[in-house]
Amino acid sequence: QKEVEQDPGPLSVPEGAIVSLNCTYSNSAFQYFMWYRQYSRKGPELLMYTYSSGNKEDGRFTAQVDKSSKYISLFIRDSQPSDSATYLCAMKTNFGNEKLTFGTGTRLTIIP
Amino acid sequence: DTGVSQDPRHKITKRGQNVTFRCDPISEHNRLYWYRQTLGQGPEFLTYFQNEAQLEKSRLLSDRFSAERPKGSFSTLEIQRTEQGDSAMYLCASSPMGLTGELFFGEGSRLTVL
């Protein structure tokens, strides 16, 4: 079993819809949770960063972490065609252990 | 600041040959990372430098793989006696001290082993 599980999709939604992406994990030592966006043939770029449990909002993006359920989510409101990309969740344990563990990524397409 | 730069962007080689990739991080970033990504998978951690010191290595980094960051600036990743299973995207990332988990990735070096 992988430490981080993520549905690879693909996921297609119409423009303007709310998108929900999620990951589950098994390592209870994970404390830092990230979402990266990766466009085709590009490197990942950091989208959202959360420490421990709770919600974080940045514009159209909301990240949620539920450590009790070992479940994290990313919501995208008013989705745009430019949001079409692969979304990768990533996690790490304590400060000082710099290894990130990534999910497989979910490929998202926003249909105009 | 032009971001993290990787060279070459694409390398095609024959099985058994050696290849070397170079990464130039963002200039003020102390930390430098190498990850490997295969098709349909997320990046997998290979190794991590803080300045010139290699602080962590994955068991994925077999004896055929070696990474260096001699002066704490650019880094090289060498793969000796390449195998077809080494075909992947090799991603370099950097981050400044004081941040954790916030990596700035380059566009990657794609390796194809024939």
The major β-sheet of chain A equals: 6 strands, mixed
Helicity range of the residues of chain A? under 10%
Radius of gyration of chain A, taken over Cα atoms and rounded to an integer in Å: 13 Å
Flag low-confidence runs of chain A: none
Q: What does the average pLDDT of chain A come to? A: 94
Inertia-based shape of chain A:
globular
Q: What share of the residues of chain B does DSSP label as strand, in percent?
A: over 45%
Shape of chain B: globular
Overview in brief:
The complex is a heterodimer of chains A (about 110) and B (about 110). Chain A is about 0% helix and about 55% strand. Chain A has about 110 residues and is mostly beta strands.
Report on the structure:
The complex is a heterodimer of chains A (112) and B (114). Chain A has 112 residues and is mainly beta. Helix content of chain A is 0%, strand content 54%. Chain A contains no helices and eleven strands. Chain A has strands spanning 4-6, 11-14, 19-25, 32-38, 45-51, 54-58, 61-66, 71-76, 85-92, 101-102, 106-111. In chain A, strands 2, 4, 5, 9, 10 and 11 form a six-stranded mixed sheet that branches. Chain A has a five-stranded antiparallel sheet with strand order 1-3-8-7-6, with no helix packed on it. In chain A, a hairpin with a 2-residue loop joins strand 6 (54-58) and strand 7 (61-66). The radius of gyration of chain A is 13 Å and the shape is globular. The mean pLDDT of chain A is 94. Chain B is mainly β. Chain B is built from no helices and eleven strands. In chain B, strands 2, 4, 5, 6, 9, 10 and 11 form a seven-stranded mixed sheet that branches. A four-stranded antiparallel sheet of chain B has the order 1-3-8-7, with no helix packed on it. In chain B, strand 9 and strand 10 form a beta hairpin. Chain B is globular and about 40 Å long. Classes of the chains: A mainly beta (112), B mainly beta (114). Chain A binds chain B through residues 4, 6, 8, 32, 34, 41-46, 49, 88, 90, 92, 95-105, and chain B through 4, 31, 33, 35, 40-45, 48, 55-56, 58, 91, 93, 100-108.
